[in-house]
Specification:
The protein has one domain. 72% of the residues lie in helices and 0% in strands. The chain contains three helices and no strands. It has helices at 2-6, 20-25, 30-68. The radius of gyration is 19 Å and the shape is rod-shaped.
Length: 69
């Protein structure tokens, strides 16, 4: 999903935390929306890293438990 946020997929615009008052105060600047897309992409990549670490730790523990018996 992070890649699609980086590509600014229109399907994900509903998931962005757009504050329309702030956006209007900025003159409906597209940069505000781009920043929200980038922030969401970074969040997705951080979550993916956490999933990878958890999966790696789980696989290591499976092998450790097999050898301990």
């Amino acid at each position: 999903m992070g890649v699609f946020y980086l590509l600014r997929a229109p399907a994900f615009v509903d998931d962005l935390p757009i504050d329309f008052d702030v956006w209007q105060a900025l003159g409906n600047d597209w940069k505000y929306i781009e920043d929200l897309y980038h922030e969401a992409a970074v969040t997705c990549f951080i979550a993916m890293g956490c999933y990878i670490l958890t999966f790696t730790f789980s696989v290591i523990m499976v092998f450790v438990n097999r050898w301990v018996k």
